[in-house]
Each structure stands twice: as C-alpha cells, then as structure tokens.
Amino acid sequence: MKLNAFDFFCGAGGLTRGLLDSGIEVIAGFDCDKECCESYEYNNPGVKFIAKDIRDVTLAELRRLAQKGSFKETIFVGCAPCQPFSQQRRSNKHMNDATLLSEFGRLVALAKPGIVLIENVPGITRLPGFSTFRRFLKLLTQNNYKFAYDIIDAKRYGIPQTRRRLVLIAARGTAPPLPKPKHGPTLLPFKTVRQTISHFPVLAAGECHPNVPNHVAASITPMNIERLKHTPLNGGDRRSWPDNLRLDCHKGDYNGHTDVYGRMAWDTPAPALTGRCHSISNGRYGHPEQNRAISLREAAALQTFPDGYVFFGSNTHIARQIGNAVPVRLAKELGKSLRITFLEKDIV
Fold it and tell me: Up-side HSE of residue 332: CA atoms within 13 Å toward CB?
C-alpha cells in the first residue's frame, strides 16, 4: 500500500515537491493560476497541473484521475490562498477567497480521503464568530475525522526562515500526530541565511546571472542604492540613514517597523518571505552584504527549493510563486510523518 495525494491550490509546486521527496505519489495539482503550470510541471515530471478553480472540481474528475473509486489511501492537501486571513491584508478584496476553504471541505465531504492536510497563516484561527475555519472543523467531525492542529514555526523543521504557519492533519478514525521539531533549543541549530545563500555568485541590482537559473535581482533606483549603502551590513536597517535619505513617512517621531529596506542577517534564519520577497521596500529582503534585494534564486533557496528548481514567468510572478509556496523541506517533513504513521498504525 502506498500513499498518494491531490495538491489543491498547488501554485508552483513547493508542497508537491516535498511530498514527492518524502515518497508520496502526487496524482495532480490544481490551481486557478495557469501561469504556475510551466514551473509546476517542469520540476515535477509526471505530475499533471490542472488549471481549474476548485469550485469547478468534481468528484467524478478526481476518481478519473486517481483511477479508483475509493480515496482511502489518498491525502487531500488544501493550502488555500492566505490573503483573507493574513495580517498583511490591506483591503477586503480577497474576502471571497475565504470560501475556498469551504470548497475544499466540499470535496473532502464528497470523496472522504484517508488523510486531510492543511497549511495556512495563523490568522485563519482568529476570525470572529463562526469562522470559515471553525465550520471546516465541524465538517471534519461530521465526517468522522479526528484532527490535530497547531501553529508551527518552519525554522524548527530545518527551514532557514522564521515562518509561523498553522498546520492541520486529519484522518478518519484517528488523528496522525504533527511532526516533532528537529531544530531549536536543546535540538539542532537553526539553519541560517549564510548556510543557504552564501554560495550564490555576486550580483548587482538589476542583473541576471547567465548560468544560475532565476538568479536575478530587481532593479533599484539610485536613491534606494544610496539608502542600501548607508544600511549597515549583516542585519542593518533604515535607522542608520542620514536625514536626507529618510522617507517622509519615517521622519519625526515615527518608531514603526524597521524591516522595510533592511538587510537580512547572515547567521540567523531569514524573516518570513512573501510574494514580494524580491523588493527591499516590502520587508527585510536586502542582501546581507550586497547593495540589492535578495535574488529570486536566493528567495527560492530560503524556501528550500532545490537550486535546480527552475521558475518560469515574469519576475513579479515568480516572486509570488516562491513567496506563496509551502517550503519544500517542511512539506517533506509532513509527508515523512504521514508515511511513518500510515505504515505503523494503518490509519487509512
């Protein structure tokens, strides 16, 4: 017996790649963003990318793809877009996306897969009232699933990035345990930025390396180059800028966030990457030493994509593919935990 999976909201394939690396067969990935297709299929040979809104996915289609009537040995992975639940959301324009978790629940109720896996931002648990997440938990209970969920930090699983996420695992009959952390106090040291990206060739802002796929750094205005030059190496931020370089919104008594335009520190995990991780104005995404933002290749490495994982599309879209992904190594750890539990306890 062997576990297989459907990856809903698969994006460029971070979670699919991790599950494959753990020994789980992925049947197909679904995502409504067809621009992710080339990145997904190129790096995950044999796994089909299906450009479709989850609202249009049917049970008959899943049975046809799986070539079986029962999903007892199948994992349904549902990492719905996190914008509706994210602290960084700036408007209500993404709130319709909150229904995507309900649509995933619809498929779970219809197909009754052996295992359900969710990864999302912590904010999904904090919506007021009878939230989308609480309704999903009720649906699981009504369909005889037992579940466990918690807020985990990816850096505790070998990812060189402080990235807090909710992970839920559900199974019919018994709840598989969440994987145990391997890094932290009394455990292995955290993986660092230096260990992860220091091997990449030096790059100037706006430059694309001819031999390293996706090793391209965003262009930066002369003013922002000056700002970076006045930002101390290895973790410095805008507080060291002279007055003439300060942004108007940072003048006076402003003591707000200092991450924007800041540099990463070499010997700690990186901050959480977002879909704008290639821009110094959107977070602490400055290179620790070079006067530029981290490259797309470096961002991918911090998300634990292999160096040979090639992304396709515009630089802006590739940054979203990378920043929105489940870190590959985290997906692998989740997959390994599921396989061990499945083999030892026959939970599905």
Answer: 15
User: Which pair of structure tokens corresponds to residue 332?
Assistant: 């692998």
Token pair listed for 76: 């349904």
Eight-state DSSP code of residue 304: T
Distances (CA, A) of 292 to 130, 223, 270, 316, 318: 45, 12, 16, 16, 18
Query: Which among 82, 208, 249, 277 is annotated as catalytic?
Result: 82
Q: pLDDT-derived band of residue 83, with 50, 70 and 90 as boundaries? A: low
Question: In terms of CATH architecture, what is 4-183+326-345?
Answer: 3-Layer(aba) Sandwich (3.40)
**140 phi/psi in degrees, rounded to 5:** -60, -45
> In which residue are the tokens 């879209």 written?
317
Domain ranges across the chain: 4-183+326-345
Cα separation, 41 vs 252, whole angstroms: 51
Residue partners of 52: CB distance under 8 A and separation at least 6? 30, 31, 32
Q: Rg for the chain (alpha carbons), in Å? A: 21
Active site includes 79?
no
How do the residues of the chain divide into helix, strand and coil, expressed in percent and rounded to 5?
Answer: 35, 15, 50
**Cα(113)–Cα(101) distance, rounded to whole angstroms?**
16
Q: 113-165: per-residue pLDDT in tens?
A: 999 999 998 887 766 555 888 999 999 999 999 999 999 999 999 999 999 99
| Rounded average pLDDT over 337-344 | 82
Strand residue runs (E) in the chain: 4-8, 25-31, 48-51, 74-78, 115-120, 145-153, 164-172
d(Cα 193, Cα 269) in Å, to the nearest integer?
A: 6
- Chain centroid offset of residue 300 CA: 10
Percent of the chain with pLDDT over 70: 89
pTM of model > 0.90: yes
164-172 and 145-153: which strand pairing?
A: antiparallel
Report CA dihedral (37, 296, 262, 267) to the nearest 10 degrees. Answer: 110
Residue 25 has pLDDT above 60, yes or no: yes
